[in-house]
Amino acid sequence: MTPPHAPQIPVVVLAGFLGSGKTTLLNHLLRNRAGNRIGVIVNDFGSIEIDALTVAGQVGSTVSLGNGCLCCAVDASELDTYLETLTRPSARLDVIVIEASGLAEPQELVRMLLASDNPHVRYGGLVEVVDAAEFPATRERHPEIDRHLAVADLIVLNKTDRVSDAEQAAVREAVVTAGGRGAVISAAYGRIDPEMLLDPVLRPDEGDLDRQLSFEDLLPEADRAHDTHLHAAYESVSFSTEVPLDPRRFMAFLDSRPEGLYRIKGFADFGPGDRDNRYALHAVGRFLRFVPQPWGRDEERRTQLVLIGSGIDAEALHKELENCRSHHPGVTEELERSMWGVLRYVREPDADEA
Ligand SMILES: Nc1nc2c(ncn2[C@@H]2O[C@H](COP(=O)(O)OP(=O)(O)OP(=O)(O)O)[C@@H](O)[C@H]2O)c(=O)[nH]1
């Protein structure tokens, strides 16, 4: 039995559809944590853990739950193991954030947390990130997104830089209506006040748990068949190679990517096209961006990509990516020219913190 005064670390679930900006927001929090110690649990969909790689190095307290959706873990023992590690007194954490996969059912995660018998944690709220630019189309495809918003404590209307004021107002209205009780804040690049995570709204007293997520919120979810989960319709393809990619062929692949291929993330190695940098790649819907990042001194040169979509032909995509590999002997004028195709999608400096 734990004494009532034993410190309990709030565990916040950070959810949101594929590519909405969860990792970007998390990295913003880690960079601006104002003395707070934040533990991170990342749950990726896809067998290469790109998100874990993207937040790794920020804190000593990042663990990855690996492949698949945590919301469908048969039992929550893996989560419990990580929570135990992160709540060791030596970690001295103020808050733990679980970044859910973009296809997770947040209610399930919350339920697992509420069911956890770790006396050192308490449920700290659900933060749902919404991509303001993609929301109307995503909601049309997945009306069930509304039920995620309905149980959120805080909704971050992200990517407001990508929409006009009128579009933002329309999305905000839709989100507020679906959101029910959660506060809605607008953001670009996930730049919210880190205090939001430690805010009392997100740190209920034990007695307030039912205000956060009522039994009714959870029950229908328990009855819902697994095949109604968002990720049931999605498939992921992982691709990893130490052979550099040919920029021209890779761009042709990206330009002709099928409609159902909603999300691509990872790192591309263009070999002699740019020996100094790997290219972090993000595609969300039709949006595409590269961010050159210097290779570490001893880092293995390798392309690692995860592609997530519905109705995609995994085998064909894999084959197409294999055809993008190039054993190019060295720099040629042709190679330099074809790197321009990549550089067109490099972000403006400082536009992005991901
Ligand atoms: N223009 C714009 N781009 C953003 C913003 N926030 C994030 N992005 C970009 O959107 C892409 C996806 O961001 P992530 O943070 O990786 O999204 P995520 O929700 O973690 O993605 P998944 O883990 O695949 O679900 C990246 O290219 C980000 O740089 C924003 O406010 N504005």
Descriptive overview:
With 354 residues, this protein is an alpha/beta fold. The chain folds into two domains: 9-230, 3-Layer(aba) Sandwich (Rossmann fold), CATH 3.40.50; 234-343, CobW-like, C-terminal domain (Hypothetical Protein Yjia, Chain: A,domain 2). Helices cover 31% and strands 22% of the residues. It has helices at residues 22-31, 50-55, 77-86, 106-115, 135-141, 145-150, 165-179, 195-198, 209-212, 215-223, 247-255, 314-322, 333-343, and strands at 9-16, 38-42, 62-64, 95-99, 121-131, 154-158, 183-186, 235-241, 261-268, 277-284, 287-294, 303-309. The strands form two sheets. Strands 3-2-4-1-5-6-7 form a seven-stranded parallel beta sheet, with helices on both faces. It has a five-stranded antiparallel beta sheet with strand order 8-12-9-10-11, with helices on one face. The termini are far apart. Residues 56-60 and 200-224 have low confidence and may be disordered. The site of guanosine-5'-triphosphate has 24 residues, from α1, β9 and β10.
